[in-house]
C-alpha cells in the first residue's frame, strides 16, 4: 500500500468537471473563472424592483441576522450576528467579527469596495444551510412538476465548502489570516507582519539543515456520541426516561408529576393489530434515529479519521513522519466508511498502543514549522472541512503536502498538484515521501510553488483584491448599483430593521508586548438609521433646490433658461444689453427699421 500512486486531487477533478474538461487555463484564469461561476449560480436581477425586493429580504427581520452590508466604505451588521452585548454570543460570532475585520482592513489599506449586501455563513461546511438556497431541487410533490432551474436566491459568501465547489455560495477568505493562538483576526496588516516574520525565519533555515520528516501537530479527537448523555432508552415510549435522557429531568420533573396525578384521559380502544403496527413503527423509528445520528457523526469525523491515519504513519515510519497529536481520543465509529474500516481499526490500535510516541502537547509557534522540509495539512476536526493551519504553511519555505479531501477554499482553483503542493492519503503517503527524498529537484519545485502561493495568492493585498473583485461581481449580478447608492432607498427598504443594523467599528488594541500579537476589537457604532437619515435629508433638499432652479411655470411666463446662443448680424456682431438696444439698432442695422 505504501507504494501506491498518489490520488488524483479531488478539488482539481471537480473543477475540470464543472468547467468542461482538462484544459482549464492558467492559475489566475481558474481562480477568476470559479469565482464567476459561483456568482452566476445566483439569480440575476435586471429590473430595479427585483433588486429592491432582494435588498428588502436581506435587511428584513427574517434574514437580517445573516446579512452583511457595505455602504460607502462602512460595514453594517446586527448585534446578534456579531455576538455583541446585550445579545447572546454563539459559536461562529467570533468568525463573523473576523470577516468584518478583514473587510474593514481591506478598506483601511486603500481597497475600494462597491456597495453590496450579502448573506454570510461562517460555517466550515459551506452555504447549504438555508442562507442561499431558495429554490432547492427536491423530489416533486404529487401533482407538481420539478423546478425548471436550480438557481439560488440570496447572494451568500462562505469561507469554505466541505463537499466541493458545487455547493452554493461565493468563497471568501477565512477569518484566521493574521491570527495567532487566541482566535480570529482578519487584520491584513497583522497578516503582513506575520508572513514577514515567517519568511525571515524560513530564509535562515536552508533545506539541508531542516528535519527531513513530514511535520504536523494538532488535536486527534472525535465527534462521536457523548458518553455522558447515555444510550437511547430501551423503551422509546417511556416519556419520563426519554426526558431524563435528554437532560431535562430537573426542569420537567414537576410537570411529569402533575401529569401523573391528573385523572386519566379517555383513550380510544385500539385493536391488537393497530398496537402491533404502532410498536413496529416506533421500533423502526428508533433504529432509523440511531442510524441517522451515527451516520451524521461519522460523516463529521472525516477530518478526525484522516488525523488518525496520519498519526499511525508516525508509528509505522518514524524516520519519515513527525505527525503528533496534542490530544489523542481517536474515533471508533467507522460505519460510514466500510471500505476503510480495516485500515482505520488498525491505525487506532497502533496509535493507542504507541501513544507515548504519538502524543505531544507542547506548544509550537508558526515559525517552528520551518524547521522541517515537509509540512502537512489535514482536514479540520470539527466537520472535516478546511483547517486554519494551512494559512501560514505556504510561508515556511517547506514543501506543502495536502491530505486528499473534497473541501475547497477561495484560492484552491489556482493550486496545481505536483507544482504548488503534493497530495497524499493514508495508502500513498509513505511512497510519496520516499520518492521526494530520491528526487531533490521535485522537492525544490514544491518549495518554489508554495512560495508562489505565499506571494501571489494569499498575500495581504492579494486577499484585499480578491474581496474587491468578489464584491464587484456580486454587485453586478444583483443589480445593486444605483439602488444601494441612494440613502433614501436603503432606508425605505430596511424598514423597521433600520435600527437593528449597527456600524461595525474595528478598534486596534494590544494584547501583548509586540504589535504582532494585537487583535482588533469589534464594537457597535451608530445604527443604520442614524447614518443614513441625515444623508437622505441632505439629498432631498439638494434635489428640491435643483428642481426649483430649473422650474418653469405653465404658459411660458417667468424666467426661462437660455438654450441657444444669441444670433449675430451680417457683420458678426452680437446683440447688446437691453439698455442700449435703441442706439445699437440705429448704428448697426439690427432688426426691422
Task: Describe the 3D structure.
The chain has 593 residues and is α/β, with parallel strands linked by helices. It has 19 helices and twelve strands. Strand 1 (67-71) and strand 2 (74-78) form a beta hairpin. Helix 7 runs antiparallel to helix 8, helix 10 (302-316) crosses helix 11 (341-353) and helix 17 packs across helix 18. The termini are far apart. The relative contact order is 0.15.
Shape: globular
How would you classify the helix and strand content by structural class?
Answer: alpha/beta
Please summarize the sheet with the most strands: 7 strands, mixed
Q: Treating each run of at least 4 consecutive H or I residues as one helix, how many helices? A: 19
Estimated share of beta-strand residues: 5-15%
Radius of gyration: 32 Å
Cα(first) to Cα(last) distance is: 113 Å
What is the overall pLDDT average? 81
Share of helix, binned? 40-55%
Q: For the largest sheet, list the strands in their spatial order.
A: 5-4-3-1-2-11-12
Name the poorly predicted regions.
Answer: 135-149, 225-253, 513-517
Which features does this protein show?
7-stranded mixed sheet; alpha/beta; 12 strands; globular; 19 helices; 593 residues; 5-stranded parallel sheet
Short précis:
This protein is of the alpha/beta class.
Please specify the SSE layout and strand pairing.
Layout: H1 10-19, H2 27-40, H3 48-59, E1 67-71, E2 74-78, H4 79-82, H5 93-108, E3 116-121, E4 156-158, E5 170-171, H6 188-203, E6 211-220, H7 239-245, H8 249-261, H9 272-300, H10 302-316, E7 321-328, H11 341-353, H12 355-358, E8 372-377, H13 390-393, E9 399-403, E10 422-424, H14 429-438, H15 440-456, H16 460-478, H17 487-494, E11 501-507, E12 521-527, H18 528-549, H19 581-588
Parallel strand pairs: 3-4, 4-5, 6-7, 6-8, 8-9, 9-10
Antiparallel strand pairs: 1-2, 1-3, 2-11, 11-12
Helix pairs in contact: 2-16, 3-17, 5-16, 6-16, 7-8, 10-11, 17-18
